[in-house]
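During the first year of the project, the team set up a workflow for recording each protein of interest as an amino acid sequence followed immediately by a discrete structure-token representation. This format lets reviewers and collaborators read both layers of information side by side without switching files. As required by the reporting guidelines, we include two representative entries from the current panel. The first entry is reproduced here exactly as it appears in our internal archive.
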Amino acid sequence: MKLFVGIDVSSKDLQVVALDSEDQNKRLINDSFVNDLYGASELKKQILDLAQNKHYDQIIIGMEATSIYSFHPAYFFQNDEDLQKLNVETDVINPKETSRFHKVFEESKTDPLDAYYIALYLSFGHYRVSIARQDNYLALERLTRTRYELVQELTRTKQHFIEALYYRVNKLITVDKDKINTPLFGATMMSIVTDSKTLDEIADMPTEDLISYLQVKGRGRFSDPDTLAKAIKKAVRGSYRLGKVMTDSIDAVLSVHYNMIQSFNESIKDLEKAIDRIVDALPESKILESIPGIGKTYTAGIIAEIGSIDRFDKEEQLAKYAGLTWNQYQSGDHSNEHTPMARTGNRYLRYYLIEAANLARLHDPVFKKYYQKKYDEAVYSPHKRACTLTARKLVRVIFKLLKDDKLYRTPRS
């Protein structure tokens, strides 16, 4: 016999309904507890009392993923020493899954009802993934998720920087990249854009002086500084001129975005150092790093979200957890050729898998061949679609390697 404990979590309280497999209509617990250590401990006591009286084979405690509010209750119940002596599983559920389940019954949405349907959802044995137990995984998750958020912010800031730069010197954005073959966000170009020199000063500067300026900023790394200097001067001269008020405004915006970009880059480096210290201690890291190209950072992001591979029975479960699934549309003899990816699942895991797959296809012939095949087949957004499908293949490989506890070996052709 099993006990199912459904918890509807808010910032203030825990609405709880407990059912067992013997009689799902009888609510063994139907109460509200404060969302703090005292409230969780009181609920734990009631669960232990039920377990002592009924001798359950398994106790499943489930709650929806509700931003930061579900973290502490889930962590408490999963790691409590008294509960660990019993066969207790703690699940954090995608709210979309329970919402679809709830709609079948067409009842009003209230917190006690939500808790009841969470418990009922658990009793139906629907696909669930228990939270990672070890602190190392959770600590790594905090770091890798923060890194993800900073990378998103960095990308947005760079887009705003490019937009402002187009107002300031539009030809620098649209010029042929073969002529200015240095990265826009490299130290040299950023110095040119944000330095104290005005664009007119750069345009009027003798080519020899600009070459020297570029060599100093680029630390002598340019193979053809003469061509680069001429291309930059041409781009600056061909750009539209703005009035002083508008110019000062754009320069202020560029300066702010430049400082933000520098700050984000430094913060990401600091996080990656902290990530490296934790991931090196995890046994799964060597397995994932054996896949060519992935490296420590993406290995850490994947491990942090997967946790123990024992949480998953099949690779399809892992793919669904990551949101790397596609909805099939078919009616009669018609089947839609373009099947969009299901926008559900763990977006952090999906991001790290796709980024890792993009690196793996550059370093491993098997992934490269598969990527190219999917690229050639794609009708829309070939690179994006091929990377995503390659990430789905990577899921199969990672699942197999972790389950078998083996390093990756590139198959011989």
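The second entry, processed by the same pipeline in the following quarter, appears below.
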Amino acid sequence: MAPALGAAGPRRLYSLLAVVVLALLMVQARLWAPYWDTRNVQAILTWDAMGYYLYLPAKFIYHDLRYLRFVPDIMREYSPSGSFYQAFAAPGLTDGTMVMKYPIGVALLQLPFFWLGHWAAALWHYPQDGFSAPYQVAIAFGGLAYGVLGLAVLRRVLGLYFADGVVAATLVLVALGTNYFQYAVFDAAMAHTYGFTLYAFLLWLTAKWHRAPSRAAAAGIGLVLGLLVLTRPTEAVAALLPVFWGVGSVAALRAKLALLRQRWPDVLLLLACGALALLPQLLYWKAMTGSFIVYSYQEQTFSLLHPHLREVLISFKKGWLVYTPLALLLPLGWLALLRQYRAVAVPVLLYALVNLWIVSAWDIWWYGGSFGQRALVASYAPLSLVWAALLAAVFGLRRWRTVGVSLLVPVLVLLVDLNLFQHWQYMYGIIHTEDMTRRYYQAIFSKARPTQDDYALLDVPSRISQVAPFFSRRTVGLRDFDQEPLNEQAGVTNEAGAEGSHQSALLAGQRRVATTPLVLRADSAGLFPRQWVRVSAQVRSEWGAWNDQLVLMIDGAGKRPVRYAVRLHNNGSQLGVWNKVWFDVPLPNNLRPTDELCVFAASHDGSRALLDNLRLEVLTPLTKAAAPRQ
């Protein structure tokens, strides 16, 4: 039943060196962007990662798995997320019982590193509260260690089928050519790097059982499958790999069924160990709610009959092929794997297709703030067999080897380079965690320093097709606040404004609109339909004007208002100084002379910021060549 093995050298030095070098690179990258000693949302144990980890401090520090009474103190001290969504009130109970949203598997795998952080916190006199710097460091490097372990185990798996040079090259491609790097290094407290490593173990144990069936391997497969489900319930799809492993034809399927009948004690042991691995989650749900099964994601659901395949694959918001372009080579790799090891290609292809369907069926298909399709990171362990097959096929050519290598290697280098540069853009906030659009992606492609015009495309759909020197700008409205009476209630403050002015407007979380808007009638300002205007303001904030917006509202009797808005803080903003923010938009086709244009700043529970020089300008092209891009 075991597929034929590849020619792997006994020492496999190249692949060993690849794992060691990649491990050093990953540690260096982690040290480049530490974040763990900060009390803000850039720390490790934040957002979803906090939800996976929360079992540990709740159980071992606060002894409060049921009510989580310690969480408000943690939220005040460390601000790990904008709101506490990581648990919810137990349905049907009124005693305040809370149920964790995320499964327990990641916390179980983090347990050794949690205790390491707990010990270090006592040794170096940090608060032993589960979230101080030693815990953050321990969990960060613990996740990274699991990621390196996954590469090491994957090396063993690939070595069963491919030459050592191919194995080494594949490991480099997986680590540096996909968004695995993001989740093994920077977001290592999330479930994905743990899933990747568990998949590597699953492949190893599955191959081992099919080569020499044993109860130990069967038990291992069951435990790993159970842990995969405990990290992310949708990883139950991993069961397709051991079930169909070795099945490359109808005859092979019959032989597999015969083997399973013959080895039925192994099958029962596998199922028992899988159930044993699931037991901690079932017991937790039973203790909290009285039921062994709880759907903890509440209103978040799947649309299995209408998956978001297009969005998951090619959207600029989170498209897998856009942000992990190495995946474009998978179809060629499958053809190669089918020719080399059909008994491996069939189960991997079946798994990959079903997994992609399930990932795409999740209604929040962009999976929150993330780089690319994070839900597919764990699947790179099985998919590495496909990439390896492509490399083996090209490097194994006889007549056209030089041509094949000459074509493939530059493509791989470019894809890896693009992936790493996009990682860098993501880490520096150029690639946004959730709000990417086609126009914005095109504007910032290959850019290390985008302009305000580029950042505006996160929020407005278009911009002038030529740069500013090709347009004349005429100011039709300005509010600088210097001539207005001081009125804190109205938002006018005596804090110094921009460009030497003495007053400014205060924008804070409880103030929805900063002072009186700048209001103009279209006819009095000399504005016409389809004319381009620039809306601008200057803003200063010590912590970033997060969730604050610069708004243009166009309103007229009997018409639906038109609203444009851009965020007042972007990656180009500097803290503690005055920044100019602007955007350009065309006026509506149905603009009437009596319509009013209102320019103001709005806060959606945003950060405190000072505002000055609200301005509306008309942009007039100097030549016919400077037509707006539609």
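For the second entry, the following points were noted during internal review. Residues 465 and 627 are 7 Å apart (CA to CA). Residues 452-621 form a domain with the Jelly Rolls fold (CATH 2.60.120.260). Both points are flagged for discussion at the upcoming steering committee meeting.
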